[in-house]
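Async update (no meeting this week)

Hi team, since we skipped the sync, here's where things stand on the single-chain job. The sequence we agreed to prioritize is pasted below, unchanged from the tracker. I ran it this morning and attached the output directly underneath so nobody has to dig for it. Comments welcome in thread, and please keep replies under the output.
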Amino acid sequence: MGIAEWREQLKRGEVSARELTDHHLNRIAAVEPSINAYTEVTADRARADADRIDAARAAGEVLPPLAGVPLAIKDNLCTRGVRTTCSSRMLETFVPPYESTVTSRLWESGAVLLGKTNLDEFAMGSSTETSVFGPSRNPWNTDKVPGGSSGGSAAAVAAGECVGSLGSDTGGSIRQPAAFCGVVGLKPTYGRVSRYGLVAFASSLDQVGPFATNVADAAELLQVIAGEDPRDSTCLKAPVPDYRAALQQPVAGLKVGIVRECFEAEGLDPVVKASVMAAAHQLEALGCELVEVSCPRFNDGIATYYVIAPSEASANLARYDGVKYGYRASFADSGSVSLAEMTSRSRAEGFGDEVKRRILIGTYALSAGYVDAYYKKAQQVRTLIRRDFDRAFGAVDVLLTPTSPTTAFGFGAHSEDPLAMYLADLLTIPANMAGLPAISLPCGFDGAGLPIGVQLITGVLQEERLLQVAWHYEQAARVMEQRPEAAFVP
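Output:
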């Protein structure tokens, strides 16, 4: 049942916010030992939030749009008074004194906080295996990863542990886990949603977005979190349209671009390719025109990303020095320890291997003698990627690609080969490079019953069209009505 249906039932008194909250808290208690989607469950706060909504309804007050809707928040978004760890030893005890803009807007809209969700440490990963709290597991098959870095947020929605959730997407960290877990994941245009209160990974790429079980719910959540924020200088001042109203606008006549390079990508599973092409033909049956387009530098996005993102991470994570906040290493004789030694050891102990690997890559790329060869060159390629998209959108309205080259892989499958792990984001990274909105939604299943995701991409600030096309496909394909048996998906 979607957010709109819950809202109507709440208004009619057929269900209370407390009942809805208790239902999800009971679900969390039942499946968390197997899924590990949450780093912290805020049960007392959730019940108190729900009781306030029920009291407001009983008093005849006009309820806000997300009144009583239980949500989960990725644990790299600051929540005042609730621990925000980034799934790292470095911030294991950090309790923010302020609220992020996006979560503040959710609470003002009546949403209920169920808790914080697990992620790859500092959002660096594609499997949620690098969390200090242990890995999250895919609800469709608990021997498989849920994707990353927002794996906990995706798994929580897929397992019925919340109505929706928020994640962050730097190179595919919303869309890839959405594909692996069979849910909808939306990365908005860069600057469409405020980053204030999001713990930074790569500041020119990070964007906050929603997970949901359906496109309409994703539109509902985006409606609340989008919009100008004076506390974020990169946040756009463009007015926020009515995303929900855009869903049912007809799609007949729209041109859908099939990105040639994506269907020739290294490691693309033939079953994934066939399922995504079937989704394209479903849109064709709805009256869209399929057009093959070329984005020659699409597959260069991953090499570009792994210069730019680590470079920005190297600068952003320099603040964790063991002085003001965060983990500080212990010494037997602290009086004889230099600041440099304390900082070095605190970082060595506080950061995990993948975070340290990316910091080292970024520091090297920014070092004297190499910045022109690596960082500057990567920014030039980034511009060329954006120009490829501009040319493509001169011919079509929306682009269609697979979300990930494969379905969910097993734990440890890429633990000895970081480059193989990085390829999991091959098809999602280019949209981040260009700052474009993109969405992943289920389009089928592989032979093992694992979900397959199709990705749609539109031009800057064209989330209305993105959601419109996604909603029409979802309504026509009815993918989840054909799903095989799964371990925990309700």
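Quick observations from my side:
The chain has a mean pLDDT of 95.
The domain at 3-249+438-482 is CATH 3.90.1300.10 (Amidase signature (AS) enzymes).
Reply here if anything looks off.
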